[in-house]
């Protein structure tokens, strides 16, 4: 497992009975997490008076934030030189998946060591953590997400990180349709990143189902890799889909035409109050032999 253990503005302090207690900058949040099936005490009681907001699940689906201590509408945290704007969102989200720090470090290192201009495609790009990582290493990045709100959020993160003059292209689009158009146009990329959800909808209501669509998308993306690609990175949070499943897909598509290696690892977050680790999905990568 690779741990996102370089954070200064974020930490998982404790986790128990389906909940995790986290610090995002100056604010302390209590949120549900399905991986936490162990018992280390009732966190709401354990940290009473030290919780700024709690996300409560509803029996009917979804849930709501109880903003106990007036968490602001928006605040910022940093990861190295990346500035990320946060806010309390529906479905317990804040605008960041902190475990992705593992992948941001990987992206920056691979691009920095390439010693050439790298063209990156970031699909299901959300608020742009991986886009920021690519820009910080002087890559040009095409940022694609079906949500206009997420794309606008990424623009704010890019500007606040000091990269407003960097080479970045923002697109509100369905990822599969976009890649198909790139194939027809003959556009190529040196690195491809994707963080697909289990379920989602495209810009025009297109339906995305991870199990049904992921192989098609990876196969399509393999057709827009440059003659000298650097890496292909897939994050997966879908329950029941191991990293080896994604590794098999990369071997059947990317590795077929591009020599290199394929490997997968769990990614996670250290829990401050003890020596436990919170698992947070998988990162599967093809990378060149160069």
Concise summary:
With 290 residues, the protein is of the alpha/beta class. The chain contains 8 helices and 17 strands. Helix content is 27%, strand content 33%.
Question: Could you name the CATH homologous superfamily of the largest domain?
Answer: Vaccinia Virus protein VP39
SS class: alpha/beta
How much beta, percentage-wise? 25-35%
Strand order of the largest sheet: 1-16-17-15-12-9-10-11
Q: How is the biggest beta sheet arranged?
A: 8 strands, mixed
CATH architecture of the largest domain, by name, is 3-Layer(aba) Sandwich
The gross shape turns out to be: globular
How many helices in DSSP terms? Answer: 8
Unreliable stretches, pLDDT < 50, 5 or more residues?
A: none
Number of domains: 2
Report the CATH topology name of the largest domain.
Rossmann fold
- Give the fraction of residues assigned to helices: 25-40%
CATH class bucket of the largest domain = Alpha Beta
Radius of gyration: 19 Å
- What distance lies between the first and last C-alpha atoms, to the nearest angstrom? 24 Å
Could you give the order of the helices and strands? Answer: EEEEHEEEEHEHEHEHEEEHEHHEE
Report the average pLDDT across residues: 95
- Tally of DSSP β-strands: 17
């Amino acid at each position: 497992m690779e741990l996102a253990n370089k954070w200064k503005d974020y930490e998982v302090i404790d986790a128990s009975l389906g909940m995790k207690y986290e610090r995002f900058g100056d604010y302390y949040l209590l949120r549900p997490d399905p991986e936490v099936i162990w018992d280390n005490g009732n966190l709401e009681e354990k940290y009473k008076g030290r919780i700024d907001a709690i996300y409560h699940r509803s029996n009917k689906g979804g849930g709501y934030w109880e903003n106990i201590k007036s968490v602001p509408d928006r605040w910022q945290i940093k990861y190295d030189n990346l500035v990320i704007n946060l806010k309390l969102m529906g479905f317990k989200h804040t605008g960041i998946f902190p475990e992705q720090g593992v992948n941001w470090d990987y992206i920056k290192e691979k691009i920095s060591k390439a010693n050439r201009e790298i063209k990156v495609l970031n699909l299901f790009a959300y608020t742009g953590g991986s886009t920021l990582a690519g820009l910080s290493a002087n890559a040009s990045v095409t940022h694609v997400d079906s949500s206009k709100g997420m794309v606008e959020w990424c623009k704010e993160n890019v500007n606040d990180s000091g990269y407003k003059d960097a080479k970045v292209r923002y697109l509100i689009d369905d990822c599969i349709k976009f890649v198909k158009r790139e194939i027809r146009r003959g556009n190529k990329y040196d690195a491809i990143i994707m963080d697909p959800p289990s379920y989602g909808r495209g810009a025009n209501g297109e339906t995305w189902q991870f199990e049904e669509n992921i192989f098609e998308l990876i196969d399509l993306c393999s057709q827009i890799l440059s003659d000298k690609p650097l890496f292909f990175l897939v994050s997966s949070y879908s329950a029941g889909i191991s990293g080896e499943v994604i590794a098999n897909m990369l071997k059947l598509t990317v590795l077929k035409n591009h020599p290199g290696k394929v490997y997968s690892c769990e990614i996670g977050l250290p829990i401050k109050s003890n020596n436990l680790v919170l698992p947070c999905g998988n990162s599967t990568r093809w990378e060149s032999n160069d």
